[in-house]
Each structure stands twice: as structure tokens, then as C-alpha cells.
Amino acid sequence: MEDVLKLKRATYNLWTFVTSKLISSFGAQVYVFAISFYILQQTGSATSFATNLLCSILPRALVAPFAGYVADNYSRKTIVITAQVASTFAIAGLLTVSLTSGISLIAIYTTTVVLSITSTFSGVAFSSSITGLIDEKRIQKAMSMNQMSISVAAIGGPAVGGLLYGTVSMPVFLIMYMIASIIAVILESTMNFKLFAKRKKVVEGEARESMWHSMKAGFAYLKLQPIIMALLWVSLLINFLFGAFQVGYSFILIEKLKMPSHHFGLTEGAFAVGMLLLSFYLSVRKEVKYPFLVSKRGILVFGVLMGSIGLPLMVQMEYGVMFGFYLAVMFSFGATMIIVNTPIMVMMQKIIDDDYKGRVFSIMETMAMALMPLGIVLFGFLYDLFPAEWILIISGLLLIGVVLVLARPSVVRKAHPELGKAKAVSEQ
């Protein structure tokens, strides 16, 4: 009877988690769309746009280790709710500034920094809590449905943003985000984060380690996980090169090709549709058998797609053809991102000890983000100096080269020893 009740509670956690993510992500997407378009239209500079991206990414890299320590030593539910409340206050602050003295780049950058910090604490705490919220058999379903909710928000957010931009004032966008954030807080407060938790420190009340000793223990644990270490190094270099896409895509479509806001919003929506469809597929199928190998192949596809983004700058296209091309590219990007991320995250949830999840996920995030700020700054300057199409082609080729070297067959076989056995059998 108790197991049945726990499963029912887990089902409630699953749907509440997904709904909360959907609502908060929708508000964030509308906000990000409006702010990005505002910066590019007001300044026309890839450097200014890259600076806002930097304000989003650099704080994540800096505070992630602290977020991991906090997530492993304190109540994860409290962390999630506190972070969401702080996000609401940050948006309220920007709203107040915009109504009293007018919105400025400094105010936008400051708000972006605060939102980046709060989302890091919330994200690490949530990632560390999945196995406590939901039974093990439904982890892939939970991860896929989470991606689905984010995808739906990513479809609706830019679409709403594109339709509203230019017809309503910036305070309206901020109010929408605030309302979404408040609803998310209410939903998160009803979830049971300890339902299936296997934590020892917080549950049994052991004395907490200092942050320094806790981080050392996290690194010591990681050294015993060679597959996770391989993923860290792959993430480090890939995220650096991904700066070419993050800065270049918006810069090319808005500044170079002068695409209207509603069409730009639809291309962003195509990215989300790709994520949504693949997330739905993974939510109903059995777990991926070789997640590391599948992710490697997906990253190779990323390299090809990245190189193709500058094609309309090199080949003359009618507007309708160009618009359709970007819809197809972004749909493929979204689908591939789910193929790369979801199987790996399910594997991580299952192989990492519950007491170390906060630190491991935070170290992974720090490593993944470590070179991204440098990449965004570098590419922001490069796009103002050199042809955008060649920057993307070279970055795509480098991305393919990095994956072929760092995720070579010997590394893949370490993650999936059964691949070597299967090959040996087939050769007999």
C-alpha cells in the first residue's frame, strides 16, 4: 500500500515538475526574446549582444561549484524555491527601473547576471533531485517530459515575443515573466523532494563538511568515474566552439539578413519543435542502449549544421527559400540537441551517487561553461571584423575534429564495454 502511495506521489511530482518548468520557461523565453531583439535593434552590435550572453554564462561558471556544495548539504527544495523567489525580485527590479528612469544596457546586464546566478542554484538543485522526486523506472520519461515542457515554452515564447514586440512596451514583457515566476514558486512548494531520496548527510543529520573539503571530495569521486571525466573534456571544448552559433545565429538573421521579428521568432520556434518531437519520442520508447555513442554522433551532426548557418550569405536565395532553410536547420538543431543531451543525462542520474550529485553536476556545469565566456567574447569581436559565414564553417569543422579526437572509439568502448564484445562476436 505504501509503495502504491509513493508511486502516486511520484506521478504528482512528475506532472508538477513538468508544469512548473513549462510556466517558468515560457516566461523566460518571452523575456529573452524581447531583450535580445531590443539590444540588437538599439545597438546593431554583435559585441553588445555577446556581452549580454556573457553576463548570462560567466556567473554560471563562477557560482556552479558553490551551488553544488549547497545542493549536497542543504534542503534542495528550499534552494529551488529561494532561487525562484530571487528571480522574481530581479525582474521586479528591472521593471521598476524601466518605469522610473527608462531601461538601459547596464540595467539589462545586471538583471541577466542575477537571473543567471539564481537559475544556476535552481538548476543544480533540481538536477540533483530527479531521483528523489521520481521512481527510477521513469527517469528517462521525466527527463524527456522536462525537455518537452521547455520545448513547448521555447515554441510559444518566441512566437508570443515576435507577435508582441513593437506593439507592447518592455514592462509588459517583464510583468509576464514575473507572473510566470510566481506561479512556478507556488507549484514547486507542493512537491516532495525526499520521496525516493537516498541522501545520507542531510537525512541522517551528519556534520557538514567545509566547502573546500566538500569540493575536494567531489573531485576525488570524479577521478573514479572515467566516463564522466571524458564527458567533461568534451563539454569544455564544444561549449567554447558553440559560442560561434550562439552569437552568430541571431547576428546573421537580425543584423545581416534583416529578418522581421515574427519570422525570427518562428525560426526559434522550429528549434523548439525539433526538441519537442524528439523529447516525446524518448518519453515513450525504452531507454537508449548506448547513450555515449548516440551523443557522439549527435555532436558530429551539430558541426555540420553549424557550418550550414552562413550558407544564405554565400548563396543567393529568395526570401521564402531562405526562411524555409532556417526553419529546417533550427528544427534539426533542436532534434539533435535532445539526442545528445537526454540519454547522457539519464545515464548520469543512474551512475552518480545521490550524495555527490550536486557537486558532480556543478563541476560538469563549471567545466562546460569554463571556456564559453571566452568563446562568446571572442566570437562577438570576430563577427564584427570578419565574414560571418567563414567563422561558422571553420567553427563547425573544429567541432567535428574535437569530437572525433576526444570521443574516439577507445573512449566509447570504456563507456560501453558491451560494444567491444558485440564486435568480437560479429567478427567470429
From TrEMBL:
<feature type="transmembrane region" description="Helical">
    <location>
        <begin position="46"/>
        <end position="67"/>
    </location>
</feature>
<keyword id="KW-0813">Transport</keyword>
<feature type="transmembrane region" description="Helical">
    <location>
        <begin position="294"/>
        <end position="315"/>
    </location>
</feature>
<feature type="transmembrane region" description="Helical">
    <location>
        <begin position="79"/>
        <end position="100"/>
    </location>
</feature>
<feature type="transmembrane region" description="Helical">
    <location>
        <begin position="12"/>
        <end position="40"/>
    </location>
</feature>
<protein>
    <submittedName>
        <fullName>MFS transporter</fullName>
    </submittedName>
</protein>
<dbReference type="InterPro" id="IPR011701">
    <property type="entry name" value="MFS"/>
</dbReference>
<feature type="transmembrane region" description="Helical">
    <location>
        <begin position="106"/>
        <end position="127"/>
    </location>
</feature>
<feature type="transmembrane region" description="Helical">
    <location>
        <begin position="360"/>
        <end position="382"/>
    </location>
</feature>
<keyword id="KW-0812">Transmembrane</keyword>
<feature type="transmembrane region" description="Helical">
    <location>
        <begin position="174"/>
        <end position="197"/>
    </location>
</feature>
<keyword id="KW-0472">Membrane</keyword>
<feature type="transmembrane region" description="Helical">
    <location>
        <begin position="321"/>
        <end position="340"/>
    </location>
</feature>
<feature type="transmembrane region" description="Helical">
    <location>
        <begin position="262"/>
        <end position="282"/>
    </location>
</feature>
<feature type="transmembrane region" description="Helical">
    <location>
        <begin position="388"/>
        <end position="407"/>
    </location>
</feature>
<dbReference type="InterPro" id="IPR036259">
    <property type="entry name" value="MFS_trans_sf"/>
</dbReference>
<keyword id="KW-1003">Cell membrane</keyword>
<dbReference type="Pfam" id="PF07690">
    <property type="entry name" value="MFS_1"/>
</dbReference>
<feature type="transmembrane region" description="Helical">
    <location>
        <begin position="218"/>
        <end position="242"/>
    </location>
</feature>
<keyword id="KW-1133">Transmembrane helix</keyword>
<feature type="transmembrane region" description="Helical">
    <location>
        <begin position="148"/>
        <end position="168"/>
    </location>
</feature>
